[in-house]
# Entry
Amino acid sequence: MKRFLKYIQRTALALGLMIVVGSCNMFDLNINTDPNNPSKADFALLLTSSQLSTLGFFNNFNNDAHGFMGVMSSSDSYNLSNNSYNGGWNDFYSNGAKDLEEIIKAAEANTSAQYYLGIAQVMKAYHFGLFVDLFGDAPYTEAFAGNYEAANINPKFDAGKDIYEDLIKLCDAAVANFAKTGQATVSGDLYYGGNIASWTRLANTVKLRLLINTRLVRNNAAAINAILTSGNYIQTAAQDFQFRYNRLANPEGRHPWFQGGYVSNPSSFTYFLHQYMYEMLLDDDPRFPFYFKRQTTSILNPNDQGQANTIPCSQASGCTYAYFVLNQDIIKALYTDKGKPFTNNDRLFLAGIFGRDRGDISGVPQDVNFRTSPGAYPAAGAYDALTYNAAGTLTAATTGNTAASRAGDGITPLITSWMTKYYQIEAILSGISTGNARQLFEAAMREQMAKVVSVGSAADAAAIAPTTAAIDKYVNLYLKRYDDAPNDAQKLNIALKQAWFSNFGNGHEMYTAFRRTGYPNDIQKPIARFRQFPLRLPQPQQETDLNKSAPKSPVAFDTPEAAVFWDVLKFKFQ
# Structure
């Protein structure tokens, strides 16, 4: 009887709800669309989303690119597999690149949104150019039709060469769209604040980058010279294509290196490699205290079992530099040979130069609180405590700057005035353009140093700007090396060695320039490695498994056959 009564009650309740719903005409409201996932987004919102997402794509690969080029230990032994980049590949196609495609698709049908169209075209040209530089052939023409009416979830792989051809055309199309009148004002632009003159300049600069990359496989002389002659490309620091982070901790908006080096406890930042830091010290590079921040002044005892396991390279044989502070060859090169006394302050300073040799595949020692950290540039961390004497030589302070402000609002330099000068230097020294390469070389060095000081000083009020003597000494050192180089090829080698130091924060530029030219040609070989130098990144296994149109047996990424189409050098270690 109780069960029967409960049944009657539930039936009555259901009938009552049906009557209420019917009287409210709820079925006429048609709310099948999720308001939190609109089918069409505002151009400004999509633009902001695409810029943040494509920056994420850039950063997903940036540390590894530094590792390939002997600056950081990220993937510096080339221990990569077909599962290494599943996440980065998927993130690019499902977020940043997809947002750009949606802007392009919608703006093409809106005659007053041509500025948005042009911006999306420039960004697509830049970021897809990077993507081809990393992976070679990739889905492009059919890449974004998965949710269209005529859906395609198995997009074909387009040849990298064909993608590049379209990207160059996109740059020209963007310039044409920026020249149109009667367009809506652009909002949501995190780079140039909707300034169309700046975007026009960037469109020409992205095209210049694509043309420089392909100069050995495509007749680009006329197109390169047309851009350079026009003058409408990035030439000054105020025009730089860079992303500026903020100081917010929640939501997190600070530089990725800052997050790893200062926010994580203990630090989750990787190692800087020894050669990079050593050569900057050897040349009294005034950027050193802006690039790097020491964590310690403690001198560890390799004979103490408890301390030995924290010393660099303690678990590997064949380390070239190992522990700087106890390496007499290092001390001789940095001090004795330069006529400088090796003081106790210098000893304490060297104790904090705590990195790793390139390709050290041994276990990681217990050194997380000793490793040299990112500094005030580009991560907006802390400035290190160094001073300059009257001759422009770096002088060590007793301890690191432990009381520095920690801002995190640094930059990612995507394309800058000094980068375009290195493009132009390469064009001149390779014989496809004219101009004063030496003059451009000096300007590139000085512009980059000014940016380092500007960003670093804004991040840390304790930063000490290099003296004029310090900067002049360094610049003149490299100009002499340039002048002493016996031919244009070796002059380019010197210039791109300096670009290796200047492009700190943008590993993509280093990695691409090296595969294109083989310069700089004196980067330390890995002391151990799993395979040859990666000529491109491995095709992700998820793409192989899920995309029926993907190559099912992609060639090994470190073999000559795998090289990106513009790579005629196909570098390998001898």
Notes: Residues 428 and 435 are 6 Å apart (CA to CA).
